[in-house]
Specification:
The complex is a heterodimer of chains A (142) and B (365). With 142 residues, chain A is α+β, with helices and mostly antiparallel strands. Chain A has a single domain, classed as HupH hydrogenase expression protein, C-terminal domain (Ribosomal Protein S8, Chain: A, domain 1, 2-Layer Sandwich). Chain A is 33% helix and 21% strand. Chain A has helices at 21-40, 57-65, 120-124, 126-138, and strands at residues 44-47, 71-75, 79-84, 90-96, 102-109. Chain A has a 5-stranded antiparallel β-sheet. The longest helix of chain A has 20 residues, at 21-40. Chain A starts with 20 loop residues before the first helix and ends with a helix. The termini of chain B are far apart. Helices cover 42% and strands 10% of the residues of chain B. Chain B is α/β, with parallel strands linked by helices and 365 residues long. In chain B, the strands form 3 sheets. Chain B has a 5-stranded parallel β-sheet with strand order 2-1-3-7-9, with helices on both faces. The radius of gyration of chain B is 22 Å and the shape is flat. Chain B has 2 domains: 49-228, NADH:ubiquinone oxidoreductase-like, 20kDa subunit (Rossmann fold); 232-350, Cytochrome-c3 Hydrogenase, Chain A, domain 2. Chain B has helices at residues 7-13, 18-31, 39-48, 64-69, 77-84, 98-111, 141-150, 159-164, 166-169, 180-183, 199-212, 225-228, 232-235, 239-243, 254-257, 276-279, 321-330, 333-349, 358-364, and strands at 53-58, 86-90, 116-121, 124-125, 135-136, 139-140, 152-158, 177-178, 189-192. The chains are: A alpha+beta (142), B alpha/beta (365). Chains A and B meet through strand 1 and strand 5 of A and helix 2, helix 14 and helix 16 of B.
């Protein structure tokens, strides 16, 4: 899936309007982070909850970034929704609590978001977990 | 410390995954106004953290600060109580009452002497005031504060009443109310003002103490710079309208409907330092200025005595409306001068407090 209508000039907010400044600033920060990532391989996190957005700014920013090909959902202390924007390497990570209230909304400029990676400590225990399951299967369950 | 197990151990016992813990730390970084890249460092610190004991004293207050705390969603109050802090005494939230509650406070103080965090909301009648204006279990606020203070590691004054005297201290201050800082001279004090404070700021200060094991950097009013380091005006999404000289003149004119700057409707944003503009309220939904109400300056000292909330007191008398509009035309230069004058006026207003007795109050009436 690509951004589609977000590239339609009719849907773009008026550049230079006072209500557009905060979102435009974030886009420039994303651009800087992308260039840095391409040059050094270092990822960047931008916390969108700490921005002085005007009403509608966040929605416009998300619309401008669009939706890419990947979506994921993590269930850990409530849902976390992850999606790649229409700009490759620019991800949105939406952390929610158990009541689906937003904890943080971050832009992560990286190959993929850290939250999707299997923790190394968990992988160290993976064989033991699998052995336990094989043992359970041999006993007829689950 | 209140418990021997670390927070990491407690979370694992409760089945919290490492991904969940990382997410919790990302939320905590956001809560503490730290860069998101600090999440791994926070995770390492929290993994080792033990629950500090917290004793919360409520004096001359309206319970709005506790209401605010219980509406913080990140972490939830349950997280705070069960995982992050050991709230050993809070007479509004605890189940025990009467003598049992006071015994719980004394036991917690003995068990954690020298280590517990003392949180205070509300002002208290000062040393020269009648102590009978505010008592708990027959103990005056001043006596209870001094007793609890002796064994505290640090004091956190929650809300403008505790931090600066607030409403009880507003002229003519009939109860002789003073702030926590007026009493505490030999322990670190962190002021977390606001009427009430932003809930996430309350929990953020507690989380910062837990993560770093030390007090945050404070400004001249002992407020954490992480949350009170910038003026509302400087982080306000309506600031571009101010810079363009576009002001709402009434609450229902064209400018108000278009979302223009509320400076001339009495907004105290230029002289107010708080996190409302970025953290917002009600789970980040909105904040007063976004709802069309000018900032009242509730996190500043003497804000109750700063004149009418909706009078444009933030526009100094020396600068008339034409000059304000001119400021918009030439940028923020003149506006900056107005802001500086306003700040000096607010500071000067603090010197105008005049505690009075009830008799004097009745004579004035």
């Amino acid at each position: 899936m690509t951004g589609g209508s977000v590239s339609d000039p009719a849907t773009m907010p008026a550049a230079g309007g006072p209500d557009w400044d905060a979102a435009k600033a974030i886009l420039n920060e994303v651009r800087h982070a992308l260039r840095h990532f391409v040059a050094t391989g270092e990822s960047t996190l931008i916390d969108l909850r700490a921005q002085p957005f005007a009403p509608g700014d966040l929605e416009r920013l998300l619309a401008w970034l669009g939706r890419g090909e990947v979506e994921a959902r993590v269930e850990a202390l409530g849902p976390t929704r992850v999606w790649e924007s229409a700009v490759p390497g620019v991800w949105l990570v939406d952390h929610r609590d158990g009541d689906d209230q937003r904890l943080t909304l971050q832009i992560e400029v990286a190959e993929f978001p850290e939250i999707l990676r299997s923790p190394a400590q968990d992988i160290e225990q993976a064989v033991a977990i699998l052995d336990a399951r094989l043992g359970a299967a041999a006993d007829g369950g689950p | 410390m209140a418990a021997s197990k670390t927070l990491g151990e407690r979370l694992r016992e409760r089945g919290v995954s490492r991904r969940g813990f990382l997410k919790y730390c990302a939320a905590t970084a956001s809560l503490m106004a730290l860069p998101p890249s600090m999440a791994p460092a926070i995770a390492a610190a929290l993994e080792r953290a033990r629950r500090p004991s917290v004793i919360w004293l409520s004096f001359q207050e309206c319970t709005g600060c506790t209401e605010s705390l219980t509406r913080s969603f990140s972490p939830t109050i349950e997280d705070l109580i069960l995982d992050v802090v050991s709230l050993d005494y809070h007479h509004t939230l605890q189940a025990a009452s009467g003598e049992a509650a006071e015994r719980a406070r004394e036991e917690a103080m003995r068990a954690h002497w020298g280590e517990y965090l003392l949180v205070v909301d509300g002002s208290l009648p000062g040393p020269r005031a009648n102590p009978g204006y505010s008592t708990i279990a027959g103990i005056s606020n001043l006596q209870m504060l001094e007793e609890a203070l002796a064994g505290a590691a640090a004091v956190i004054a929650i809300g403008t009443c505790a931090a600066f005297g607030g409403l009880p201290q507003a002229r003519p201050n009939p109860t002789g109310a003073v702030s926590v800082s007026d009493i505490v001279t030999d322990k670190p004090v962190i002021n977390v003002p606001g009427c009430p404070p932003v809930p996430m700021v309350i929990t953020g200060v507690l989380a910062q103490y837990l993560v770093f094991g030390q007090l945050p950097e404070l400004d001249e009013y002992r407020r954490p710079r992480a949350f009170y380091g910038q003026a509302i005006h400087d982080r306000c999404y309506r600031r571009p309208f101010y810079d363009k000289g576009l002001f709402a003149e009434t609450f229902d004119d064209e400018g108000a409907r278009a979302g223009w700057c509320l400076y001339r409707l009495g907004c105290k944003g230029p002289s107010t330092y708080n996190a409302c503009a970025t953290m917002r309220w009600n789970g980040g939904t909105s904040w007063p200025v976004e709802a069309g109400a000018p900032c009242l300056g509730c996190s500043e000292a003497s804000f109750w005595d700063a004149g009418g909330f909706y009078r444009a007191l933030s526009v100094p008398a020396e600068i008339d409306g034409a000059r304000i509009l001119a400021a918009g035309a030439v940028g923020a230069v003149v506006g900056g001068a107005a802001v500086a004058l306003t700040r000096r006026r607010v500071r000067a207003g603090e010197q105008a407090r005049e505690p009075v007795t009830v008799d004097e109050l009745e004579q004035r009436q």
